[in-house]
Structure formats: C-alpha cells, structure tokens
Here is the input.
Amino acid sequence: MKCIALLFVGLLSAFSCKAQNDSAVFASVFKEALTHGECYSRLGELCKTIGSRLSGSDNAEKAVAWGLNMLSSYHFDTVFTQPVMVPRWERSNTELLTLSSAVLYKKLKKGVASNYNCEAFEESTRVSRRFRLPAVALGGTVGTAGKLSASVVSVHTDAELDSLGKSGMLRGKMVLLNRAFPEENLNTFASYGACVSQRVWGASRCAVYGAAAVLVRSMSNRCDLHAHTGVMLYADSVRKIPAMAVATAVADMLDQLITEDPRMKITMELGCRTLPDRQSANVIAASTGTVYPAKIIAFGGHFDSWDQGEGAHDDGAGCMHAFEALRILKAIGYKPRHTLCCVWWMNEENGLRGATEYAAVASANRESHVAALESDRGGFTPRGFGVDTAILSRILPFKPLLEKYGIGTLENGGGGADIGPLKKYNPSTVLISFIPDSQRYFDVHHAETDVFENVNKRELELGAAAVAAMIYILDQELE
Ligand SMILES: [Zn+2]
Here is the structure.
C-alpha cells in the first residue's frame, strides 16, 4: 500500500514537474519573441528590399538568395535550397479596363453620382466618356491581343449563369461574376471558400456559353477600390478567354449601372503571357534532433507571393513565423528531440510545385516527417491551431496553458496546401494549421495593400511565439 502511495506521489510530482517545465518554456518563448523578436525587421527587409515574389520572376530568385543568406547568418545546423521547376506567368504594362457610359458621364457632370463609388474615376485617367476602372489581370489569364470591347452582364449565382448561358444571353458578352462574400460567416476563410470557384473556373464556365471575357468580383469582405488577383485555371477543352478581377466597389457600381445604361461598354486590354518553366527553389533551415535526428517536424509558409503589393501577410508573415520559431527555440537554449525544419515552399499560389517537390524528395529519401505545421493565414493575432484528429487528445491537456497566451482555440483537423502532399506520401504525418484572427485577412489578400505597413509588429511576434510553442509541444509529445 505504501509503495503504491509512493508511486502515486512520484507520478504526480513528475507530472507537475513536467507541467512546470512546459510553463517555463512557454514563458521563455513569448519573452524572447516580444523582447528580442527578429521576425518583424526581417519581414520589413524582405518586403522593402525585394517586394513581391511571383514564381518564375527575377524577384522570386532574389528572395531565394536573400533567404539563404539571411538564414545562414543564424548558424542553424543546416541551411540549404532545394531546386524545383516553377511555372512562369507574367503581367505586362498593357493592362487596362475602361468603361464608356453616357449615363455615368452625365451624372458625374451634374454631381449626382454619389452612389457610384466614382470619386476614384474622376481622379483617374478620364478621356471624354471613358473611365479607367481599378482592375487587375487574374494570374494565368491569356491576353486580349489588342482591345476587346463588349457589353456587360452581371451574374450572382451559378444557377443564374447557367440559365442566362443556355438562353444565349452571354454570347459575345463580358460577364461580371459578382457573387459577394457571405457576411454571416464568422470565419472569413469560409466566405472565401464559398466564392473562390468563380475566380478559379469562372472563365471556362462562361466560355462554354460563348462569353468574350470575364470580370470577377474581388475576393474580399471590404468595399473599396483595390482589385485582388489570384490564380485562375482553364478547363482543357474550352476556349481560353481573358479574365480580370475588379474592385468590390466597382462590381457594385457596375451592377447598378447595367440597368440604368444598357448601352454602356467595357474595353479590356491585356498583354500578359505565359513563358517556359524556370528553376527556382524551396529554402530550408534546420536544427538537428538530439534524440530522433532522422525524424523531422517541418513548419513553414510559402515564399512566393502574387505580384500585387509585397506579399507581406501572404505569406511573408508565415515564412517569418517559421524562421522566428526556429530562432527562438535555439535562442532560449532548447535542445529539440526531433529535427526541426523551417521550410519556405516556392510556388504555392499558382502551381504548388515547391510543396510537391519537397514531399517527393522526402519520400524518395525515406525521410520520416512525424509532423508538419503550416502558417498561411496572415500575420494577425494568433488564436490557436487546427490539429490533426489523430493527436488532438494529446494536445488537449495543453489547452489551459495555450489559453493563458490567447491561443487556446483547438479545431479538430489540421492541414494546408503546402503540407498536404507530405500526408499523401505518408498518411501517419500529423498536420497542424496555425490559426490567427481572420477578420482583416481578405482586406489585403492578393491586393496592392498587402504591404509591410499593414502588418502589426506585436501581432506578428505573437504569431511566431505561438508557432514556436506548438512546435515545442509536438517535439515533446510525438515519438
Ligand atoms: Zn498564401
């Protein structure tokens, strides 16, 4: 009886000793992030000395060189690049969307156009009755080979698109795909998910009905004059028609103007093109495990970005979270049991080639990835994590400690575009998603406003600390 009691006391003290240790590690991680953080200044360097990093661009290659050099300066155990061929689509200087509308022109002259969000058009290039609209080519679109003019039809649902298409109403028209973000969702990623198909497949859906081109409402909750680009794809057997994103305020204005001025016309001129693939690279830094050096915990974000803005939130922030997590754990003297691997994947936005190559190499080399964490939802205040169902019960005991740092949200199920391929090769790899607050992400996502100035220093640092804390938990809990 005495023995059992002693054993019980022993177990209890071992348990509380471990809990105290976890708590001390968390305290050190957050203190290091908030008092000696380096992710914010490094993100500033990336955004301001290089800027956007579209796959296949010279800027993306400059970023790879910068990343290799920057990570090497921290003397992690390994720093290297992993080559990968990436697609190359290029925007051109010829990128113009103009509106000709006698009705709008008259209203502007009379000063009664306040409902049309047209202050911006007055400021921009106005040549007689043509107004330049804030719009950008979608990534992957074909060009227009000269000017393409057409009248506009606005559609809000797939059913409306099919109904108008079948009655021949889209033939020769420019179709405005105008499904707005559902505002009732708490999580804005759910709203994005509900709308993004019109951006990705809208051109081919409309081409089937003989449309000349498509305009896609920007994927954002916000009503403003910034157009948001993003990837679009063509179905194989369908004619390729050009596609541009228009700012949400413009989409609303056109919706109204279509009924008031049936004779209005829009002219599109796009010179973008697709070039042969080019060699690029994933950028990787690792601290070798002291107990299981051959077992890897990978964590990172994508290093490429769209060519609007500076890719600050998407996904410079995720890359800096991962680098900073690796740096913090080293700085506080933590000796990882597994090999901790910070990965900046190339080409998530328009191909996923980097993540596919990373997983293929891991599989060919028989590397064992026990877990992978992805941060690709911006540098906003951290809330918690999406956790692979297989290990949720092992993470739940940490919830009170995570809650102390405001990161106690634990959703069942983790994943992400860049870590998904690892699980395809090895179903036992545990996937974790980093979850920050989502309310402002789509204000800037893929737009010219995704710049360093729109990243908050404290929020970014807290995100990096959250990632470091979760990597510590995984390192402790997994075999
Ligand atoms: Zn992203």
